[in-house]
Inverse folding.
């Protein structure tokens, strides 16, 4: 990435004008389901001084019979709640035709694993003025992820944040295999910021604390975690979403360990 340009990429702190360079935390439900749930989470994030809320409005589901997301109604809820609690918003865009609409409502366009090599979507995101969170494809190599980022950059958008979210291997104990070495390799070879999505890589909550610390020790710029006030009622990814108490526990663990690192 950026082999043709000498200019350095902005850090996440620079993109959003954040007061300090501590690792960023992106948290929120898998999907927007209603305003009450999102407000509960937003209030919690605000209390903890977390700046980024995530929530899907267009959900790329494996089965067409599963909940597909609230679409524009979901974007509106996300926008309004985030405004009330002064949070930056991240949501996935799955179609070139929606980039403009999604950009009207949210701060960061997420391109999900299933669309990492949707080149027309990458080009459209490149023409957007919104920062892009680009997730690693389910079976994508690090090189392919870097090439996908290059699509966004050469089309005019240098504010790209990469996201390692695990890849498919023969291992079945986790939902995907987290490739932690992607973090220092991406940083070294591209200079782009990179965060790690703990929820979609692990698919389980019981080991999330130790992996969060490992990821931050590897100098990831941040983490993404799915959080839901009532995970057992969630319409998607119910098993991997933390409730607020579990999330609080994760935050304490990170705070204890980050000071040591
Ligand atoms: C998500 O973050 O909502 C998501 C669907 O993740 P991924 O694209 O990594 O599977
Ligand atoms: Mn999810």
């Amino acid at each position: 990435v950026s082999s043709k340009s000498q200019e350095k990429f902005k850090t996440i702190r620079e993109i959003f004008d954040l007061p300090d360079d501590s690792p960023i935390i992106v948290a929120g439900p898998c999907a927007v389901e209603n305003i009450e749930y999102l407000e509960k989470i937003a209030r919690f994030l605000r209390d903890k001084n977390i700046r980024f809320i995530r929530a899907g409005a267009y959900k790329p589901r494996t089965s067409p019979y599963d909940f597909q997301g609230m679409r524009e109604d979901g974007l509106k809820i996300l926008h309004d709640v985030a405004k009330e609690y002064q949070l930056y918003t991240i949501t996935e865009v799955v179609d070139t035709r929606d980039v403009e609409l999604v950009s009207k409502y949210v701060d960061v366009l997420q391109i999900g694993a299933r669309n990492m090599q949707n080149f027309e979507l990458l080009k459209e995101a490149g023409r957007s003025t919104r920062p892009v969170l680009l997730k690693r494809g389910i079976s994508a190599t690090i090189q392919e992820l870097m090439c996908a980022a290059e699509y966004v950059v050469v089309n005019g958008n240098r504010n790209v944040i990469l996201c390692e979210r695990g890849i498919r291997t023969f291992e079945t104990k986790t939902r995907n295999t987290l490739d932690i070495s992607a973090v220092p390799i991406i940083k070294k070879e591209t200079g782009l910021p990179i965060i790690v999505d703990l929820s979609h890589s692990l698919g389980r909550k019981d080991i999330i604390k130790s992996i969060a610390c490992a990821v931050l020790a590897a100098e990831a710029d941040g983490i993404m975690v799915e959080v839901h006030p009532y995970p057992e009622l969630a319409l998607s990814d119910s098993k991997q979403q933390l409730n607020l108490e579990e999330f609080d526990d994760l935050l304490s663990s990170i705070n204890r360990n980050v000071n040591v690192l």
Notes: Strands lie at 24-28, 52-54, 88-92, 108-111, 132-135, 160-164, 194-197, 222-226.
